[in-house]
């Protein structure tokens, strides 16, 4: 976390999620290393390609991707959480290109490119003999059958969505510190367990209300089976960095971004005057009638820090 804190920039960060369709997840079940690796590559390539388009952002961006393979009920649900700084370096690397406040890239455009890149990558894995099939999927080992299986997937909408932007660099660090090292279920969700049954809390998204918490009871062998689905292959990294944040060039790119962002702040500042007059607010506080004072200034589009209201002095 200390290393990640050094990488954070004083800008808005965005949270994008890429999810595999259930039909693809079935293939990933037996081919975790190959398909999860492709999920990382295709999602990162989709973001870097769309962001580099001059009609979109026109910048080289970076991202941190985190793989999760579970749903709330411990089902197999592979998806990638991506944390992306709100901007990037210009093609020549001589200026910082910021995205619009509160908006990164169109998720539908990302979804369609991600779909194409992933399907093409999956076909390449099949041609290379890197996929294995079992049970009712055994027939997919034949190229023609596999191509027919994937054909409908080229026309359906794949789930890519953007969550609300993080509140700031501190929120990104808090997210990374708790979210990246989660496993499929934590002790806090367990209610009871014995040789026959395990009961745990889960979130039922079919319930259309704020309170979606339900209790699921599984036979103990079934609970163990579901938990073991999410054990990754030996040596597989579930946190990866791409683009500007790729390990080989991260330090140099972060330093350049900081310098350009600092120059941008200086450029946007008002020219100094002979006498610096402190900022004041002439209107009294509408609540207590006292003199108001400025506690923070921030640029347009920048998130102010969350602060509690000042405590009124005792009479």
UniProtKB/TrEMBL annotation:
A molecular function (GO) term: transposase activity
The protein's name: Putative transposase
InterPro entries per the UniProt record, alphabetical: Transposase_32
Matching PANTHER family: ISSOD25 TRANSPOSASE TNPA_ISSOD25, TRANSPOSASE
Domain (Transposase IS801/IS1294): residue spans on this chain: 62-249
Listed GO biological process terms: DNA transposition
Signal peptide: none
Species for this entry: Planktotalea frisia
Superkingdom of source: Bacteria
């Amino acid at each position: 976390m200390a290393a990640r804190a050094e990488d954070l920039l004083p800008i808005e960060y965005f949270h994008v999620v890429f999810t595999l369709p259930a039909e693809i997840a079935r293939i990933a079940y037996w081919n975790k290393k190959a398909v999860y690796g492709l999920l990382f590559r295709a999602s990162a390539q989709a973001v870097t390609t769309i962001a580099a388009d001059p009609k979109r952002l026109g910048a080289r961006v970076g991202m941190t991707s985190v793989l999760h393979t579970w749903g709330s009920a411990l089902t197999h649900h592979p998806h990638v959480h991506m944390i992306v700084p709100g901007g990037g370096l210009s093609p020549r690397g001589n200026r910082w290109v910021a995205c619009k406040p509160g908006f990164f890239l169109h998720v539908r455009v990302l979804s369609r490119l991600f779909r194409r890149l992933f399907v093409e990558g999956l076909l390449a894995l099949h041609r290379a003999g890197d996929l294995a099939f079992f049970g009712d999927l055994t027939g997919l080992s034949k190229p023609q059958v596999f191509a027919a299986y994937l054909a409908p997937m080229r026309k359906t909408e794949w789930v890519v969505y953007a969550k609300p932007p993080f509140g700031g660099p501190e929120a990104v660090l808090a997210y990374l510190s708790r979210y990246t090292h989660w496993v499929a279920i934590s002790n806090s969700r367990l209610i009871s367990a014995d040789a026959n049954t395990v009961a745990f809390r889960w979130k039922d998204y079919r319930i259309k209300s704020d309170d979606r918490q339900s209790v699921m009871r599984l036979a103990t062998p079934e609970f163990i089976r579901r938990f073991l689905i999410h054990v990754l292959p030996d040596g597989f990294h579930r946190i990866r960095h791409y683009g500007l944040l790729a390990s080989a060039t991260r330090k140099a790119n972060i330093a350049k971004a900081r310098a350009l962002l600092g120059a941008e702040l200086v450029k946007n500042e008002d020219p100094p005057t002979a006498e610096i007059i402190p900022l004041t607010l002439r209107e009294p506080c509408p609540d207590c009638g006292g003199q108001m004072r400025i506690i923070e200034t921030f640029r347009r589009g920048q998130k102010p820090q969350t602060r509690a209201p000042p405590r009124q002095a005792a009479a």
